[in-house]
Automatic annotation (TrEMBL), chains A, B:
One of its GO terms (cellular component) is cytosol. Its EC number is 6.1.1.15. This is Proline--tRNA ligase. Pfam families: HGTP_anticodon, tRNA-synt_2b, tRNA_edit. InterPro entries: aa-tRNA-synt_IIb, aa-tRNA-synth_II, aa-tRNA-synth_II/BPL/LPL, Anticodon-bd, Anticodon-bd_dom_sf, Pro-tRNA-ligase_IIa, Pro-tRNA-synth_IIa_bac-type, Pro-tRNA-Synthase_IIa_type1. Belongs to the class-II aminoacyl-tRNA synthetase family. ProS type 1 subfamily. Transmembrane segments: none annotated. It comes from Copranaerobaculum intestinale. The gene is proS. NCBIfam families: PRK09194.1, proS_fam_II. One of its GO terms (molecular function) is aminoacyl-tRNA deacylase activity.
Length: 561, 561
């Protein structure tokens, strides 16, 4: 592509409403442009990257034998009602009516339609297994779109769905996708971790996430310093290292603590550590109030809480609810005398004589023991902390942040059962089909790559997804020798199969170099003063210096590169 | 692709709710599946066709130097309000609110967003021309989706937009697209006509349509028997061949016509031809009532009427309105004494002593003349009929029906002006950008190809878009010699670059042959009884008989084919 004949622009300044490195760099490089909150135009240069990402995904999907199709986005609302997911998605789903007042939604994910597509009369076990996929636009009405392409409301996803007759078959189909995913993310040069993740309240047998590691990530990836354990914070088990306390039980004491409401204030008041304090958190879970007891230095893991209660929604109770339940100001909740179910973290079992709120404004209780209140359930409901020990090898855990670029999910028979997808087994009996689902966010990959591959000058695209393989800069467009050589190079390199950008604009060389760095092509070739001798300058995007070489040397160099 | 390992199905019976040949055949061939009214799933075999269609379009677009990008479908409603098109689209546009009650629509076409994308500060005339395109999903809330993929509510469109500094530039950009379109539709083997079409009430300089000719088409393509004149019925000029009547004026007579309401009945009553009668049609145009006068044998051309009145919407007035205006039952409207504007077709100018309704129930008037009533406008407002004469050469016109698969449009400065897209000219003055827009309906092409290429056995895909280049049928899957030869052929042909389907299912040969004909691959290779000798049977989709040949002969044959 020749820039002189093209639509091309870059922005010198940082983009004000972009709150991430990738969003800012992609916008500045003229690759994306915001259309409305969480909705982007993918501009021509970005489209080239997106195509390359899609091609990598499509090639690896086709290699597994998966077959591509295309589902609509406009889906009857009843389809999600039938599967029981309309409510689960709630206002995350865009809903609309057609001119006949019929209810539709914009598909956020397509388990339902694929299940329906797979329905064919008289399907026999011999027709399995198969895997279908699409590269298609999804819609989710995110509460807070952010981080450029990372959390958006309209985006392209590769989603695939496997169909098997039994769990062994599912495992084979799952592993094919799983291995294809590793190839895909490796080809994109992403630094990622594969972590076990939550299978959700709706059931499901196994969920794994591909987390691209970077600071901006919204997921916490828990790793072991020593072994290869890796898990999403949401589901990581806390290994209780405490031993039963042998302290003698002491009598409960009511203590006035007028200015101590936070854990820190209470600990300071009593002159003790946070972990000698038991905090009581009031939550509303699927509409019902619960109290959760945790050591003072722990946080509630909401995913674990939901799973324990087989619920869909959890949120901190509002002030009014807390004050009604505790009959006290917020900040003084405790387990004794509460009329709502109390759920206790496992780590409290070994404690004695701890401090809790008194359910009385400006008061706490000292020397509380488990025998003093009623417990509805005891379980591991806390989030792990850095330094907690690895559930596999016992060494300390460390945290990194990740962007979920892909996930793989053994669904089992959930959708087949709710929507009626069956096959005839060898005995001519109807059985539910066993499914898996697998997703990759295409724009999110693009953003994650930029988050991981950039410097102060701009983007550093991996070769596999760079918008062009290389860029030729004509230093002085008025110098005919330079222009001629550049054109010759451009045509010859294109013939050799390279995707080449030629910057033949009437701009100063400095502007062209800056643009080339910002848009992040792997190799820059400058056709400058020594053009008469057939000498050009070559510079890899990450190198500090140019290398002078002849055109012949360049061809050899590129073959090696 | 081997069918034994694939998701594959066909339907023996016609599909009940498909009202077109293409819809029925595509559904039966397992290429599409209806999801809801006017919304389809493109199934794997159909996806292969759609990809080939998209590839042809993409290649020809790229050849013109157009650059691909991708716009969102979710668009702020205000974007269309700003351009003045929100009202024009009306309920054809799907509208929705996000969780913050902000108004969005699903894009039916993207002039606005492309105009906005093209806005960059300080654009100079030197940055032009350029053309941008996308292959992207569109949404239109059609009143009556029908004919399979031909009139749907969600579909993929290639839309491109050209940006120039003046009309000469626009013409060059336009012709590039126009010529690319011819290549595209030629490559798809479509039989089409290019016709002049309406530029709409909103202005625009030139509109041409690419009409794939077939019976099911919703557009009427007007052709000349003699010259190459071709035009959409909507805008074809009626050449008035009448000469001024020299009959003496006679006195108006009120005639009781109790049982004559239709043109035929009135003509029979008076013993005259329909063209001696002038009919009066009451329409509501942008909310206001008008009377249109036409010869009894003519129909009103609504496009011409809209254009004449510079209006957006036209519909027949309801019975109540007609009765109020005419002070009579429906069926007796006439021009004399009407209080609404009367618009008269040009052909009436030369008439004398004609019959009209009397604006009195069960009565008509004889010997009416133009001098007897007031005319607001006289113009060509009638639709041409077959047999009318060609505006270019005077020979008779003939009609064919067409499906609009593409259109090209010189927009001019309409969007640039309404949305503020300007450039700095050589004198550093701001000027509006001159735009063109160009569309191709991808699924509609697929349907039009099937409408034109089928027989009683199924689809006959042109080579350029067939889901596979050829299909190999193993006659007897239990015969090891056959299976071995078929596998060998399959692998070798794939290595030679052919896209091959291998039917290795455990089915009777008759079933396999029928399926192969239904899905319409250009060439079928049967590996049967003479496999031991290395002899196979070859049959083109349109041939009546097999040709026996050796494998070597096959390779030579395919190279020629």
């Amino acid at each position: 592509m020749k820039l002189s004949n093209s639509y091309f622009y870059t922005l010198r300044e940082n983009v004000k409403d972009e709150d991430s490195t990738s969003g800012n760099l992609l916008a500045r490089a003229g690759m994306i442009k915001k259309s409305s909150a969480g909705v982007y135009m993918i501009m021509p240069l970005g489209m080239k990257v997106l195509h390359k990402i899609e091609t990598i995904i499509r090639e690896e999907m086709d290699n597994t034998g998966a077959q591509e199709l295309l589902m609509p986005s406009l889906i009857l609302e009843e389809v999600y009602e039938n599967s029981g997911r309309r409510e689960a998605f709630g206002s995350n789903m865009f809903a609309l009516k057609d001119r006949f007042q019929k209810n539709y939604v914009l598909g956020p994910t397509h388990e339902e339609l694929f299940t329906m597509a797979a329905m064919m009369k008289g399907r026999s076990y011999k027709d399995f297994p198969y895997t279908l996929y699409q590269i298609q636009t999804k819609y989710r009405d995110e509460t807070r779109p952010r981080f450029g392409l990372i959390r958006v409301r309209e985006f392209i996803m590769k989603d695939s769905y496997s169909f098997d007759t039994d769990l062994d078959g599912l495992h084979v189909s799952y592993m094919k996708m799983f291995n294809a995913y590793k190839k895909i993310f490796d080809r994109m040069d992403l630094n990622y971790k594969i972590v076990k993740a939550d299978t959700g309240a709706m059931g499901g047998l196994l969920s794994e996430e591909f987390q691209a590691l970077c600071e901006i990530g919204e997921d916490v990836v828990v790793n072991c310093e020593h072994c290869d354990f890796s898990s999403n914070l949401e589901i990581t088990e806390v290994i209780d290292q405490s031993v039963p306390s042998t302290e003698p039980y002491q009598d409960i004491e009511l203590v006035a603590t007028p200015n101590a409401k936070t854990i820190e204030e209470v600990a300071a008041f009593f002159g003790c550590q946070a972990d000698q304090f038991v905090k009581t958190l009031i939550y509303r879970v699927d509409g019902k109030l619960y109290a959760f007891l945790l050591k003072g230095n722990r946080e509630l893991n909401e995913t674990k809480a939901l799973k324990l209660l087989k619920a869909n929604e959890i949120e901190l109770a509002n002030f009014e609810d807390v004050e009604t339940v505790t009959k006290a100001k917020v900040g003084f909740a405790g387990p004794i005398g509460l009329s709502i179910p109390v759920i206790m973290d496992q780590e409290i079992v070994n404690m004695r004589n701890f401090i809790t709120g008194a359910n009385q404004s400006d008061h706490h209780l000292k020397n509380v023991n488990i025998k003093d209140f009623e417990v509805y359930k005891t379980a591991d409901i806390a989030s792990v902390k850095e330094g907690d020990i690895c559930p596999v090898c016992g060494k300390p855990l460390v945290f990194t942040k990740g962007i979920e670029v892909g996930n793989t999910f053994k669904l089992g028979t959930k959708y087949a059962k709710s929507l009626g997808l069956e096959y005839l087994d060898a005995d001519n009996k109807l059985q539910p089909v066993v499914m898996g689902s697998y997703g990759i966010g295409c724009e999110r990959c693009m953003a994650a790559i930029v988050e991981q591959h950039n410097d102060e000058h701009g983007i550093i695209w991996p070769k596999s997804v760079a918008p062009f393989d290389l860029g030729i800069v004509v230093a002085n467009i008025k110098d005919e020798t330079q222009v001629k050589l550049a054109e010759k190079l451009y045509n010859q390199l294109k013939q050799q199969g390279y995707d080449v950008l030629l910057d033949d604009r009437k701009e100063r060389p400095g502007v062209k170099f800056k643009d080339m760095e910002l848009i992040g092509l792997p190799i820059r070739i400058t056709v400058g003063k020594r053009s008469g001798e057939g000498i050009i300058e070559v510079r890899e995007r990450t190198a500090d210096e140019n290398q002078e070489m002849s055109v012949e040397e360049l061809y050899a160099y590129l073959k090696q590169a």
